[in-house]
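Lecture notes, unit on protein representations.

Consider one protein chain, 96 amino acids long.
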Amino acid sequence: MPLWKLTPAAVADDPRWQDRGIWSQVIVRAPTASIARVLASELERDSELPQVGNESLDFRSAFEDEKLYWVEQLSDSIAAKYGGEDGPIGIVETAR
């Protein structure tokens, strides 16, 4: 399964950040770039927000916005540093 690197695409004073924290790099193991974005968005989700019934929270992570974060697939040589493409789906490394 490929490894994906998410890095900021917008400058720090871009108003689209809306006071969100900016991660300098997030490495995710996922089958596609889209799923890598979804998995990375869990870093920003507030687990203390209650969810009742079938309500959907009005939450959109910065990782889901292609104007805020770029996603690129890591080359085989760089992926080897993280154990290659073997391993469970999920976040591999983060840096603020």
